[in-house]
Amino acid sequence: MISLTFLTADGTRIDTEARPGVSLMEAARNASVPGILAECGGACSCSTCHVYVEPGFAGLLPPASEGELDLLDFVCEPDPERSRLSCQITLTEALSGLTVTVPERQG
Known about the structure:
By secondary structure, the protein is of the alpha+beta class. It has one domain (2-101): Beta-grasp domain (Ubiquitin-like (UB roll)), CATH 3.10.20. The protein contains 3 helices and 5 strands. β1 (2-7) and β2 form a beta hairpin.
């Protein structure tokens, strides 16, 4: 299992685990993380699963696709170094310990 930490906008820390191969968005939904709306269900067509990836993990992720980059243009308060769509992050053992912050609002 892969250990994950979600930091919510109100400062709540949610520690959870997920199986390799699932998306970070699915792990967030399974853990009932508030603020991950995931309106498109993971189809990379809405940007309501936006998260900020902790800097130490950003280099372990594959680069964002053109489609993901296009959708990141619509998020509230994007961070060019840390913003990702959680539906586009497939969990691997290398990501165990990953910490992400959920933005105050999705959009």
